[in-house]
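Archive maintenance. Older records in this collection stored only the sequence; we are now back-filling the structure field for every entry so that each record is complete. The fields below show one back-filled record exactly as it appears after the update. Entries are processed alphabetically, and DUF6984 domain-containing protein is next in the queue.

ARCHIVE ENTRY
Title: DUF6984 domain-containing protein
Organism field: Dyadobacter endophyticus
Length field: 114
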Amino acid sequence: MSNIRPIRPEEVDLIHFLLEKLEFDPIDYPVSEMVDEYEGGKMGSISLGGDVNAYAGDLIQAEYVDIDNTPVVITLTQDTNGRLLDLDFWKVDFTKLLEYPTPDRLIFGKTPEE
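Back-filled structure field:
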C-alpha cells in the first residue's frame, strides 16, 4: 500500500546535499513535490517519482549512525532516464529510524578497517 505525501524540507536538503557532494547541480535533478513512502515511513525510504521499472544504479551512498547507535546506509538512486528514483535508507537492524540525518552527520567512504 502506498503512502503518498508532500516531500519534507529535510528530505530536499539531504537530496541536494548528496547531489552537491557528487558535484551535480540540483537544478538538473528536480525533486517531486510528492513522494511515496516505503514501509509506511518506518526507515525513511522514499520514491522520488522516477520509473520504478528502470533502475539504473546508485548515484551515491553514505552512512549515518542513528541516535540508538545503529548504522544506517543511505543511497540515492536514479532511473535509466537520468531522473532521481529513490532515497533509500537501510537501518542494519531493520528497526524504525529514530532521528532523520542531517548532512553534517553523514559518513562517506568508510573503509572496512574503520
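Update note: The chain has one helix and six strands. The CA atoms of residues 72 and 91 lie 4 Å apart.
Entry marked complete.
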